[in-house]
Structure formats: structure tokens, C-alpha cells
TrEMBL record:
Gene Ontology BP, a term: DNA recombination
TM stretches of this protein: 20-53
InterPro entries found in the cross-reference section: DNA_brk_join_enz, Integrase-like_cat_sf
Keywords: DNA recombination, Membrane, Transmembrane, Transmembrane helix
Molecular function, one GO term: DNA binding
SUPFAM superfamilies tied to this protein: DNA breaking-rejoining enzymes
The protein, known as: Tyrosine-type recombinase/integrase
Lineage: Bacteria, Pseudomonadati, Bacteroidota, Bacteroidia, Bacteroidales
């Protein structure tokens, strides 16, 4: 049984309203889909900025700690400034830099010996 009563062939009232309802539904669906896509993109952007913020603050903290260590500030002071629970935590972060300091000290000693030997020969 048809949902609309039979009308004359030249009558477009029923057809027009059917298309209008369909058009409204598709526009509303499109608007809703567009809003959802925009909100998902916003969420992705916020998450990316949050991750970048965490990385920047992490790098800034460790850059400060490394620079303080190279300025020969005591690890206890660095630990307190970083808010670590103990000096042991700070020292685990600074361990790789100890090797670099030892390498630099060795280079300075070798350079001094080379200069001394070349001064004696000349």
C-alpha cells in the first residue's frame, strides 16, 4: 500500500516534500559528519601539541641538568633543583656524561704531553 495518496500526474507536492525531507536529512547528516570530523581533527591536534609540550619540557629540564653538571655544580644541588627523590636518580641521568668528561680530560692530558714533547724537541 503506498504511503501517499494517489494524485494527479502534474502534482509535485508529494514529490517535492519527499525530496525536501531527504535533502534535509542528508544536509543534517553532512553537517553532523563535518562537525565530528572537525572535532576529531581538533583532538588529534591537541594530542600532538601535548606530546610536543612534554618533549620540550623534558628536553629543557635535562639540558639544564647537563649544563649544570658541566659547570661542575654538585649533583646534590642538581637533584634538589630537578625535584628528584634522591641523588641516585640524578646520577643515573648524568652517568653517560661522566664518560664524556673523562674523555675530555684525557684529551687535555694528551694535548699537554704533545705540546711538552714538541717544545723539548724544538
Amino acid at each position: 500500500m503506498p504511503s501517499f495518496p494517489k494524485q494527479a500526474a502534474n502534482s509535485l507536492v508529494t514529490e517535492t516534500s519527499q525530496y525536501f525531507v531527504f535533502f534535509c536529512r542528508s544536509v543534517c547528516s553532512a553537517i553532523l559528519a563535518k562537525c565530528l570530523i572537525i572535532n576529531v581533527l581538533r583532538l588529534i591536534i591537541v594530542i600532538l601539541f601535548f606530546i610536543a609540550f612534554l618533549n620540550i619540557t623534558y628536553m629543557a629540564r635535562h639540558t639544564w641538568a647537563t649544563t649544570a653538571y658541566y659547570c661542575e655544580i654538585h649533583p646534590g644541588i642538581i637533584s634538589e633543583a630537578m625535584g628528584h627523590s634522591s641523588i641516585t636518580v640524578t646520577e643515573t641521568y648524568l652517568k653517560p656524561f661522566r664518560n664524556k668528561k673523562i674523555d675530555e680530560a684525557n684529551r687535555q692530558v694528551v694535548d699537554f704531553v704533545k705540546r711538552t714533547i714538541s717544545g723539548l724537541i724544538a
